[in-house]
Design brief:
A hairpin with a 5-residue loop joins strand 9 and strand 10. The strands form 3 sheets. The protein has a 5-stranded mixed sheet with strand order 6-5-14-9-10. Strands 7, 8, 11, 12 and 13 form a 5-stranded antiparallel sheet that branches. A 4-stranded antiparallel sheet has the order 2-1-4-3. By secondary structure, the protein is of the alpha+beta class. Helices cover about 45% and strands about 10% of the residues.
Length: about 600
C-alpha cells in the first residue's frame, strides 16, 4: 500500500507562546467542575499576556501608512482656517444676503408642543445601549485589529491597522495578533475576551433594535418624523447657511424647541435613517450562515467590506455624539437640556438635574460592566444567548448549495489559528505520514467504525470552494476536498436519539485538555458540511489541521475542529467536557450556536 500524501509544514518544537501555567489550568478546571460563575479578573488577565499594538494607521498608496494621530492637529488647523474663512465671508454683502434668505429653519415644520415623553425616554435608552455596543465592538475589533476591503485578509493589504506588521513566522496565529485595550475602554477589557464581548455586543444590539423599532413606529404614528425628515429642498441651502454661521462663531438662533435648523435635520436624518439601518445590514453581512446562503449578495458585499463599513458607521456614531454633546453645551446648556429631558422651553435647572441623574446611571453602568462580566461570565453568556439565541437558531436552518467561487477566488493567505497539537501521539502520527491514523466514529450509531485516511480517501470525494468566517473577524476563501458528512451518516446510521455530533481534536485547547466541539445533527445533512483532508489541492498542512478538519459553513471558524481524532453521536452534550457544547464554550464563554 502506498503511503498517503504527506502534509506540508513540519510541526515546530513545543513552545510556550500564549500558554498558561499548570496552576491556572487546574484552577479553571476546578471552577468549571463546580459550576462556579466566578472568574478572578487578575487570574484571567494573566492567562493571555498583554499585547499592545500601535496608533491606528491608514494606508496611503501601496506601502505608506498615515498615523491617524495627525488628524487631531490637522483637524484643529482646518477648524481654525474654517473660522477665519467664515468670518471673512460673513463680511460680504452677498453672503449676508444669503444668510438672511436662509436663516437655517425657514423650510422646517414648526412644532408648538414639546418632544413627547416617549421620545425623551428613548433618547436616553439609545445612549445607554450604545455605550455597551461601542465598548464591546471595540473589544471585538481588537481581536483582529485590521480592516480590509476585499474578502481576503492578507497581511499587508489592509486599509487600516492597529497592530504591527505580521512577523515572518509561518505558524503565526490570529490569536497572537490580537490586542489588549486600555482598561475600561473595551468590554470586558481583557485580551481575547471576544466570547463575552460578543454576548454584550449582540445581546444589547437586540435591545437597541427593539428600541429603534418602537421609535420608528411612534415617530411616524405621531407625526414627530417631521422634526428630522427633510420635506423641502431648501434644507440644503439652510444647512449651508447654518454651517457658515456656526463656523463664523456668530451662531444661528437656537430654535430647537420649534424646529431644527437644516444642518441639524440632515445630521439627525443620516443617523436615524441611514447609519442605524446600515449598522444592522453590515452586521448581518458578517454572518456565516447568511453569507453562505445568500451567496449572490455576499460575493459582492463580502464580510470584510461589511466589517469595514460597520466600523465606519461606528466612527459616524462617535463623531455625531461628540459634536451633538458639544453643541448642546455650547449653544445654551440649560435650555437645551430642558428641551431634551424636561420637555419645557425654560432656563431653569430642572432639565440639568434629570440629565445629571441619567449621566450618573451611565457612569455607574460603564464602571460596573467589566468587573461584573469578569465575576459572572456565565450570567453574561446566558443572558446574551437568551437575547440573540432565537435569531441564531433561525439562521442555522439556512442550508446552502455550493456557491460560485472559483479557483481565482482562493485567498492568497489563510490565517492559522488555535493551539497546535504537540503530544507524542500526534507527532508519531505525523512522522509516519498518518499511516496509523484511525478516525473513530462511535456513540449513538448503529454501525460504529474506525476509518484510516486511505479509507476516507477511497470514499466518494466531496469538493467545495467556500469562505471561512473566524469569530475574530478575519476571513478567507479556500478549496476543500474530502468526504461529505452525509456519506458518513449513511455509513454509521445514527440512532433516533442522536441529536448532537461531537468532534474531538488531537490537539489541546489553550488552557489544557482535549479540544472538542458539538454541532446539531441536522447540520450534518447540509450540502456543505464535510470532513476535509485536502486544502487548495494539497493535503492539509500541520497548521491547518492535518490530517482532517471539519467544515460546517453555517458556523464560525472556532467550531471547525482541526486535527480531528474522533466523532461521537450523543443525545446531549451536557456530560461532555464542561457541558457547554465545546472547549471554547467551556473556557472562553463562546456560544454553541454561532451563526452570526
Amino acid at each position: 500500500m502506498a503511503d498517503p500524501p504527506k502534509p506540508t509544514a513540519t510541526p515546530p518544537p513545543p513552545s510556550g507562546g500564549d500558554r498558561v501555567s499548570p496552576e491556572l489550568v487546574k484552577e479553571l478546571r476546578e471552577r468549571l467542575t463546580k459550576g462556579e460563575d466566578v472568574v478572578d479578573p487578575k487570574t484571567w488577565a494573566g492567562s493571555i499576556p498583554a499585547a499592545f499594538g500601535i496608533v491606528p494607521r491608514l494606508r496611503i498608496g501601496a506601502n505608506r501608512w498615515f498615523n491617524l494621530v495627525w488628524l487631531l492637529p490637522i483637524g484643529w488647523g482646518l477648524l481654525l482656517f474654517g473660522v477665519v474663512v467664515a468670518q471673512y465671508l460673513r463680511g460680504l454683502p452677498a453672503v449676508e444676503g444669503f444668510i438672511h434668505r436662509h436663516p437655517g429653519t425657514g423650510f422646517a415644520t414648526a412644532f408648538a408642543t414639546p418632544m413627547p415623553i416617549w421620545l425623551r425616554a428613548q433618547h436616553f435608552l439609545n445612549l445607554f445601549f450604545l455605550i455597551f455596543i461601542i465598548r464591546a465592538g471595540l473589544q471585538i475589533l481588537a481581536d483582529h485589529p485590521r480592516l480590509y476591503w476585499t474578502r481576503h485578509s492578507t497581511p499587508g493589504k489592509e486599509w487600516l491597522r492597529m497592530q504591527k506588521q505580521v512577523p515572518d513566522l509561518p505558524l503565526w496565529t490570529a490569536k497572537q495578533d490580537s490586542l489588549t485595550l486600555p482598561k475600561h475602554l473595551g468590554l470586558p477589557g481583557i485580551r481575547h475576551s471576544i466570547g463575552l464581548a460578543r454576548w454584550w455586543h449582540l445581546g444589547i444590539d437586540m435591545l437597541w433594535l427593539a428600541n429603534g423599532l418602537v421609535f420608528y413606529v411612534l415617530l411616524f404614528a405621531t407625526g414627530e418624523w417631521r422634526r428630522i425628515v427633510p420635506t423641502n429642498w431648501q434644507v440644503f441651502p439652510d444647512a449651508a447657511s447654518a454651517l457658515l454661521q456656526y463656523l463664523s462663531l456668530s451662531w444661528p438662533q437656537n430654535d430647537g424647541w420649534v424646529a431644527y435648523n437644516g444642518l441639524q435635520i440632515i445630521a439627525y436624518f443620516i443617523t436615524v435613517f441611514i447609519a442605524a439601518p446600515l449598522a444592522l445590514m453590515t452586521g448581518l453581512g458578517m454572518s456565516p450562515a447568511l453569507s453562505t446562503r445568500f451567496h449572490g449578495i455576499s460575493k459582492r458585499l463580502s464580510i470584510q467590506t461589511a466589517r469595514s463599513l460597520h466600523f465606519l458607521v461606528l466612527c459616524w456614531f462617535i463623531l455625531f455624539t461628540f459634536i451633538h454633546v458639544t453643541m448642546v453645551f455650547a449653544t445654551g446648556l440649560l435650555r437645551n437640556l430642558n428641551h431634551v429631558y424636561a420637555g419645557t422651553d425654560a432656563n431653569d435647572w430642572v432639565g440639568f438635574g434629570i440629565f445629571a441623574v441619567s449621566m450618573a446611571v451611565v457612569v455607574i453602568a460603564w464602571v460596573a460592566a467589566t468587573p461584573f462580566t469578569l465575576r459572572h461570565p456565565r450570567v453574561v453568556q446566558r443572558v446574551g444567548y437568551s437575547l440573540v439565541g432565537p435569531a441564531q437558531r433561525l439562521f442555522e436552518h439556512l442550508d446552502a448549495k455550493p456557491g460560485t467561487y472559483t479557483d481565482k477566488d482562493i485567498s492568497p493567505y489563510f490565517w492559522h489559528n488555535g493551539k497546535y497539537p504537540e503530544t507524542p501521539e500526534y507527532r508519531a502520527l505525523f512522522d509516519n505520514h498518518f499511516a496509523d491514523y484511525r478516525l473513530r466514529i462511535h456513540g449513538l450509531v448503529e454501525n460504529p467504525v474506525e476509518l484510516s485516511l486511505d479509507e476516507l480517501r477511497a470514499m466518494p470525494r466531496h469538493e467545495q470552494i467556500t469562505q471561512h468566517f473566524c469569530i475574530q473577524g478575519w476571513s478567507g476563501v479556500a478549496k476543500w476536498g474530502g468526504v461529505s458528512m452525509q456519506t458518513l451518516l449513511e455509513l454509521v446510521r445514527p440512532k433516533p436519539d442522536a441529536k448532537w455530533v461531537v468532534f474531538y481534536s488531537l490537539g489541546d485547547g489553550s488552557d489544557g485538555g482535549r479540544y472538542y466541539d458539538a454541532h446539531p445533527i441536522e447540520q450534518m445533512h447540509y450540502q456543505l458540511t464535510m470532513l476535509a483532508y485536502d486544502m487548495n489541492g494539497e493535503p492539509l498542512s500541520y497548521g491547518h489541521g492535518a490530517p482532517l478538519r471539519l467544515r460546517n459553513e453555517v458556523q464560525l471558524g472556532f467550531k471547525q475542529v482541526k486535527w480531528i481524532a474522533g466523532i461521537e453521536f450523543v443525545a446531549d452534550f451536557l456530560e461532555v467536557g464542561g457541558g457547554y457544547g465545546g472547549y471554547d464554550e467551556d473556557h472562553e464563554f463562546f456560544g454553541y450556536r454561532q451563526s452570526i
